Amino acid sequence: MLLAGMSKLLVTMSDVRLSYGRTPALDKIEMEIRQGEFLVISGPSGAGKTTLLRLIWMGDKPDSGLVDVSGFRSDRIHKRELPQLRRKIGIVFQDFRLLYSRTVFDNVALPLQVTGTANRVVQKRVIALLARMGLSHRRNSFPHELSGGEQQRVAIARAMVAHPVILLADEPTGNLDPEVSREVVDLLLEINRGGTTVVMATHDPRQVPAGKGRFLFLDGGVLRGADRWTELDEKP
Amino acid sequence: MSMIRSAVREISLNLHSKPGARLVTLLMVALAFIVFNTFLIISWNLQGLMDREESLIGMEVFLQRNISEAEGRVIGDNIGSMPDVKSVYFVSSQEAEALFRAELPGRTDLLDVMGSDFRLPTSLQVVFEREAMTQGRISDISRQISSIAGVDEAVYGEDYLPGLLKTVTTIRRLVILLGIVLVSSISMVVFYTVRLSVVRRSLTVDIMRIVGAPSWFIRIPFVLEGILMGVTGSAGGLALAALLSKVLSSAVTHRFMPFSWMTLVILLGAVTGTVGALAGSYEKER
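Output (structure tokens, whole complex):
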């Protein structure tokens, strides 16, 4: 879904720089993400994809420049406001980051429980979402009892349960085989068709079918907007 | 209300996870407290011993032979009203003789040699307040008493008193110093043990952060867990120390520590556990 230039701005990055110690991670990042977009950020390992996503959920703040996410500005946001921002963002990681001592239901319900959502609402939403993800039969299972693909679907369900405006997926297929990876990408595309902005960081942009999103290439912390196939052809 | 219910649920889930790791933490805390409790029991008994020694420090005031019992009692009342004097006991001539015969049964011939008219002098036994137990103060009081009309001599063990007082003071200072060192090290052990148990669960903290949990929601389960581990660990340490004390009671006569000290031990556990948990959760939340 390509809506750039039509819908409202969700994320703006202006002249963003970030270093970890003396190692520069991102340099002169200029980027806009609009509501409803499916943005693919590709690049080799260490290019700064994860750092870029961390800047969006404000796990890090830039050394200079500005990150604005749905009105939350990196130069003004107070520590107390971070939970409010993060409730608008769903995050999916390569290593799933599930709580292994809790059931699938409890993992998915977590974002609602931490905001004090009424129990009946939690029940209703989680059960509906698990059904949509094809995980109803797994609601009482523990993550270690699930396959990698199922675990990632649980992680996506957890990211989506609070109805975020933006879903960040950091190498969501990194630990999955090609077939399951395709299923996960299809799921992200379906979520995007439902209106949620999706930002997916991946080392392999070929996982996303051509024409299904906007592609940006990160290399050595520098962002290049590019037609993905041309850019990929240029890179060995 | 729902959030509080969720927080309570979170605490319950936390407590049910990784019972093995929690048991190891509890054992570490309990073992640290056994060392501390053993020190407290030794200190408590040592203090009792020193109190007994100090209570033996007193003054014998001999009255002149021409002083009647009534006059002697008046002098006693005067001494009793002096600052730092705790109590005065009048010892009549007959009582002094009875005491002499009771305490030195092999030397009663000395009294017989002195003849039937001989009477031991009446005297006053003076006990001091604890705060006055210094060589300088006792010496002052002795001079004041000696200057009272009717007093023949005031004797208070000038030879051994300075050494005894110095020894008692030194032992007390050493116990306090050792206590401070032990409280600091126990606090560090409990602090780091609890902090590590929190840091070990960094994934939980990370996930809580990314799903938008407020700081208090993330921290409260850890803090309560810290309090619980501190209290349970210190109480376990007390129970084990009590068991040890019971086993050793037949071999070494001693008293277990008083209730107020036990309360302080539990409080120390709770405080160090809480601070450790807070430090761990702050560290992971940054």
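Chain B has a mean pLDDT of 84.
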